Amino acid sequence: MSRPAGARVAGGPLRTVYFTLLVLWVVLLPLAVHGNLAQDALPFFVAGELSASDPGAVYSTSGDLFDPTPAFARRSCELAPVGTDCAQLTVTFVSPPPALLVGRAAGVLGADVAATLFRVLGAACLAGGMAVLWTRVAPRAPEAPAYLVATALLLTPFVMVPLALGQNSPVLFLSAAVGVRWAVRWPQLLATAAIVVLAVVFKLFPIALLGILVWQRRWQLLAWTVGLLVAVGALTAALVDGRLWRDFWDASAALAPAAPENPYNGSISALLDLLGLPMRGAAGLVVLAVTGAAALAVLVWLRRRVDDDTMWAGAWVLLLVVVPMVWWHYLWVAVAAVAYAWVAGGARPRRLWCLPALAALTFPISIPNGRGFAVPWAQALFLVAVVALVAWLVGPVRRQAITT
Q1: Which string of DSSP letters, residue by residue, matches 356-402?
Q2: What is the rounded CA–CA span in Å between residue 53 and residue 58?
Q3: What are the tens digits of pLDDT across the range 51-90?
Q4: How many CB atoms lie within 10 A of CB 300?
Q5: Nearest of 182, 122, 121, 141 to residue 14 by alpha carbon
Q6: 3-state secondary structure 270-290
Q7: 122 and 162 in contact (C-beta within 8 Å)?
Q8: In which residue ranges of the chain is pLDDT below 70?
């Protein structure tokens, strides 16, 4: 097999610049926000602690993300950095009970150290995913390394969004970027399955992607993933009060009606609600059914044209089309989907502009988010634009393998 065009430049000076930038993401950016409130990480530490001492205080059924139980709010304020406006910034714990195991382990380190660890691991997921994309994209065209460097530079403000929050969503991007095709031997199968399981433990909704593994007949990877999920479930059952599952479902049901009106929610249903179409009750179910059917239709279309990695990354984006609660930092998965779509569409150099262009679009949305001002309608339109961009990049090209 001949070496892909551009392979000779993929290890040049631009590669050094690119990977140096990724290292800086991991080393410097978490330090830049050190000491600030890790708004989305703090609930893990509090919930982990209360799950042992006061299980009934872990989940709130108020229906408001900013209205935790009194004991939860009190402990959050005790652990928050000095000067935190607890009344405005304390949020509830919304992850499923298995995530309490992470909260308990992190809480042992203390809130400050644990928040820094969350941020470093988040940065490592983002940098790791970008490193994988280099191996998939850079060898495909002589111009690719320069475009990737520009893309990484433009994405840097976007990196700060999940890191400032102490978010665990970067694991979603890592899964989208790693893909499924490399998982052949047991170490790769274990690593890939572990990433998916972490996403499920933190967010739950990624469990829908197990259907993609069935569709692709990736039975070994499916078995490893299900096996790890069962092991995590068994450990949760042994260490966590069983009633917390009921509390989790009750809290989730209470949050659902208000989700479209959340000022940070960038989902399709939230956009429709903003346009004056109330998404409560039957209307919300209709939108869920329509977006689900549309996402499935696009997946069928992709399945006939692309390899499994491109379909996997695209499925992450399409899943967000359906999910009624989408935060801006979830849309990191778009970077992987567009990169894979470019390769699957023939790796045409003239279309490389789409990568830095996508990164540039994140810039004006990420800056307001970093300052606490969300632009939910822009986030929803960004999601729609990514789906269209992926379809355009793939085009009429029939299925072809992506090699590294």
Answers
A1: HHHHHHHHHHHHHHHTT---HHHHHHHHHHHHHHHHHHHTTPPP---
A2: 10
A3: 999 999 999 999 889 999 999 999 999 999 888 888 888 9
A4: 10
A5: 141
A6: HHHHHCCCCCCCHHHHHHHHH
A7: yes
A8: 1-11, 370-372, 396-404
